[in-house]
Amino acid sequence: MRSAKAPSSLSVIVALAFLYTAQGIPFGFATEYLPVVLREEGYSYAKIAALFWLQLPWQLKVLWAKVADDPARVHGRARSSSFCSSR
């Protein structure tokens, strides 16, 4: 029986870099590009300032990260594991 090979440090770093880039692109778009485009289109500063709602997922990430990591624990249920063996 072959055991699973642990990922190398380089592959983990590359994967994390891709993940942070993937989450950073929409954040950069919402905070840097979109306000400029909307101002050029004639939107008021008050309407553009309302775009802070688009940033809430990133601002509140600290609060919901625990739920995303282990939703069963938050709801009071311990995660159960089952092991199957065959001979």
UniProtKB/TrEMBL annotation:
GO terms for biological process: acetyl-CoA transmembrane transport. It is found in: Membrane. It comes from the Bacteria. It is a multi-pass membrane protein. Pfam families: Acatn (PF13000). The keyword S-adenosyl-L-methionine does not apply. Its main location: membrane. One of its GO terms (molecular function) is acetyl-CoA transmembrane transporter activity. This is AmpG permease. It comes from Labilithrix luteola.
